[in-house]
Amino acid sequence: MTDSINASLDAKFLQDWMELSSFGAVEGTGGVERQAASVADGNQRKWFATLLESHGFRVERDAIGNQFGLLEMAPGQPFVLTGSHLDSQPTAGRFDGAYGVLASAHACFRAARKFRDDPSLKPFNLAVVNWFNEEGSRFKPSMMGSSVFTGKLSLEEALATTDSRGVSVHEALDSLQERGIFDGVDVSSYAEIHVQQGRSMEEDGITIGLVDAVWGAHKFELRITGEQAHSGSTLMEERSDALLGAARLVVAARELVDQFDPGLLHTACGYMNIYPNSPVVVASEVQLLFDLRSPSSDVLSAAYKKFTEAIHEVGRRDRVDILTVAEHSWEQNPYPEDGVELARGVANELGLTSERVMTIAGHDSTNMKDKVPTVMLFVPSVDGISHNVNEYTRDEDLIAGVDHLAGVLLRLGGSLV
Amino acid sequence: MTDSINASLDAKFLQDWMELSSFGAVEGTGGVERQAASVADGNQRKWFATLLESHGFRVERDAIGNQFGLLEMAPGQPFVLTGSHLDSQPTAGRFDGAYGVLASAHACFRAARKFRDDPSLKPFNLAVVNWFNEEGSRFKPSMMGSSVFTGKLSLEEALATTDSRGVSVHEALDSLQERGIFDGVDVSSYAEIHVQQGRSMEEDGITIGLVDAVWGAHKFELRITGEQAHSGSTLMEERSDALLGAARLVVAARELVDQFDPGLLHTACGYMNIYPNSPVVVASEVQLLFDLRSPSSDVLSAAYKKFTEAIHEVGRRDRVDILTVAEHSWEQNPYPEDGVELARGVANELGLTSERVMTIAGHDSTNMKDKVPTVMLFVPSVDGISHNVNEYTRDEDLIAGVDHLAGVLLRLGGSLV
Fold it and tell me: What average pLDDT does chain B have?
């Protein structure tokens, strides 16, 4: 391609990126709010379908609302799939997920143009995906669409999940006409690109992150049960205060971090549902979510053991019942080495700096890599700000990522080696 | 009165009590849920108005939804007012407030009968009041109706207050047709009866509690501001976690109690509003309410000082901003001694055991006693359970309270001495 054609493609990407960033824009910030199956999510989905169709893609939706754009250039063959998610957290950045979806579309546009420009290239089938509800803010769990697609979560369970107002996934998708009957595609390989949710690439001056592993994680939902009482008159020693128990565990989770070397353990509680949550009433029930994450399996299991002890100690001391309602965990877990090396080759060829990085957060690719050959890529994020309206990645890095992803797709499809 | 007439009045009270307890009944429990200006509150208000009218009362509503039943037997003279509140906390007991309102009505019925039976008694004006929103669970602050009535809170501010869904007091009252234009009554004295929210009377075998003081209290609303971030990937030392700050303060408030002699300090946090309250997101803001209460002014001010230090320490250590949005406090505070002695005389005359008690919780009488001669009475509560569906007071104690309150009203009105 000539430089002028590249400049035009880049300009088109940035134009589309501006349009996409307008959906659910949070006034006075660069951020967005478009939680899964919200009105803003519905609007961006329609916009995205129109964009894909204008480039010759066929757009389909499956039963959990995953949105696919198909470019069938080798009828009957499996597809190279690429994508991420358009849904966001509340008052979130505009890059998380959405960049990966639009970059995937534009990388496919570039690959398709290659085939038109060079008839000697062997064409293959390309598909873009916008996975439903990666964030898990409105409907839990996160990575819902890719979990159903990979058989890790049942469709029935996912559709029946309700938000805090009692609206089910089924109802929310139907209200947007985004629940479909598409059977899905036969996938030969998968690629995803995302902004790094950390600052290491930014600090090291690296443009392409070659994701080689995901941190181990242990996530659980606890239900703490106390006894509703008057919070003024009830004697302190007779209280069974679920919110006090919850607070002790939030503090315990934070203090756990300092028992390990710096950087080896992340802990968090960001969600708590308190009942009756009323002034002058001792809380009778708190549901809350905890995450423990580590790049080391030993640290993760030691931290889990210590946290379990803290749960027992709080239950005993504060006379509350603490039940583990749900938990799931994954080991520190590699991405396929072939994919890392393939992506490194593309970066070298394009003259882009690259380095191996781990992802602390899970992605839809964390599901896909267990099923098919998968490549996971990062572009840098200024100051590593994430899940915040101030999240920011420079235009040149966004564009480099699209270029790089296009190269990865052509190699995954076997048109280039 | 003869025993058979008394038995019939008692039976009528218990029948009305059963009917009243059916509004907002929580299935499978003896409790109720009828928060201020809810549908259940509207229904019980209509029932109560009909009851009063059937006994010859004129029913009026003022601009903040206080419901008055007027029995004008001495035209142009001021009124002896008696009442409490029908609104409840979520999943609350059926006695808190509601007993006081129905006991007031029946005490007035008994007083009115006295006048009919004994033409030598000098009649006076009697009024029953159902104060709006004593609990403060749906609309803050608590004791809203009596605070507006006594000029401690402006009507405009109270009407503009919104619940968590953005519905204002003004709108909620209008939807029930419970916002009126009544100017209020000229009150000569006030009496209120309530179930004790503690177990001391039960343990001491006492039927009538002569409330002689209210504990001191310091209540405040804090807003903790952190920085929204990805709760997996953000480095621990870079986080500014509002929920962690909130949890540290909940623990600090509990630990404060142990720095004083047993029973001298109660602390509580029962309400927390977390934003964005989403999995995998560090909270950027938490609003929460704290109460410190003590029967000793010295303890209360020492505890307040220590808690203020804890606020500064948490802000510094966890890098969060902590703002005191609102606070109000009252000193340990006596009820009029004349009223205590008047109530003791009535108990002696009726052969009921009585003792002086303090109230830890505030009541509408806490507002009224600053304006007019006021008597505050308790009946015992089994195990002192409060703000809980298992709250329970025996029928014989309920009835003794009605009898006693009727005697108090006749003395406050000057018909008996």
Answer: 96
Element (H, E) at B192: strand B187-195
For residues A268 and B282, the answer to whether their CB atoms sit within 8 Å is: yes
Query: Of A214, A210, A196, A255, which is closest to residue A394 (Cα–Cα)?
Result: A196
Q: Is A328 on the interface with B (CB under 8 A)?
A: no
Contact between chains at B197 and A234 (C-beta distance less than 8 A): yes
- Contact yes or no for A387 and B227 at CB 8 A: no
pTM of the predicted structure, to 2 decimals: 0.92
A371-414 pLDDT per residue, tens? 999 999 999 999 999 999 999 999 999 999 999 999 999 999 99
Residue tagged 């080696």 (tokens): A417
Which residues fall within 8 angstroms of residue A50, CB to CB, at 6 or more apart?
A: none
CATH number at A3-214+333-412: 3.40.630.10
Q: With contact defined as beta carbons under 8 Å apart, do A335 and A367 qualify? A: no
* Amino acid in position A68: F
Q: Say how far residue B373 (Cα) sits from the centre of its chain.
A: 19
How many CB pairs below 8 Å do chains A and B form together?
Answer: 236
**CB nearest to B276's CB, from A89, A257, A267:** A89
Q: Residue B388: its chain A contacts at CB < 8 A?
A: 227-230, 284
What confidence score (pLDDT) does residue A216 get? 95
Question: What value of ipTM does the predicted structure carry?
Answer: 0.92
Instruction: Cite the beta strand spans of B232-343 per DSSP E.
Output: 266-275, 281-282, 285-294, 321-330, 333-334
Where in chain A are all domains bearing CATH 3.40.630.10?
3-214+333-412
B3-215+333-412 CATH pick, 3.30.565.10, 3.40.630.10, 3.20.20.10, 3.40.50.720? 3.40.630.10
A136 CB within 8 Å of a chain B CB: yes
* Residue B290 to residue B288: CA distance in whole angstroms: 7
Q: Which of A385, A355, A375 is nearest to A83 (CA)?
A: A375
Chain region(s) in chain B for CATH 3.40.630.10: 3-215+333-412
Per-residue burial over B313-324, b if 16 or more Cβ lie within 10 Å, else e, is: ebbeebbbebee
Distance CA A61, CA A101 (A): 15
* Topology (CATH) of A216-330: Alpha-Beta Plaits (3.30.70)
- Count of beta carbons in the 10 Å neighbourhood of residue B285: 20
Asked if the model's pLDDT at residue B2 lies above 80, the reply is no
Q: How far is the C-alpha of A263 from the C-alpha of A296, rounded, in Å?
A: 10
Token couple for B275: 């934003």
- Chain B positions touching A283 (Cβ under 8 A) are 270
**How many whole angstroms separate alpha carbon B410 and alpha carbon B417?**
8
> What is the biggest distance separating any 2 CA atoms in chain A, rounded to whole angstroms?
83
Q: Residue B327's CB: how many other CB atoms inside 10 A?
A: 12
**Is the Cβ–Cβ distance between B160 and B170 less than 8 Å?**
yes
**Do A385 and B229 lie within an 8 Å CB cutoff?**
yes
Q: What are the φ and ψ backbone dihedral angles of A238, each rounded to 5 degrees? A: -100, 0
Q: What gap in Å lies between CA B121 and CA B117, rounded to an integer? A: 9
Question: What are the residue ranges of CATH 3.30.70.360 in chain B?
Answer: 216-330
Are B168 and B161 in contact, with CB atoms under 8 Å apart?
A: yes
A360 touches chain B (CB under 8 A): yes
The helix/strand/coil state of A49 is: helix
Residue B415: how many other CB atoms lie within 10 Å: 19
| CB proximity under 8 Å: B 369-408 to A | 384-389
Report the candidate in A365, A245, A381 with the shortest Cα–Cα distance to residue A316: A245
pLDDT tens-digit series, residues B205-237: 999 999 999 999 999 999 999 999 999 999 999
Q: Which of residues 176-235 of A touch B (CB under 8 A)?
A: 197-198, 215, 217, 227-235
Q: With the C-alpha atoms ordered A70, A76, A80, A83, is the resulting torsion angle positive or negative? A: positive
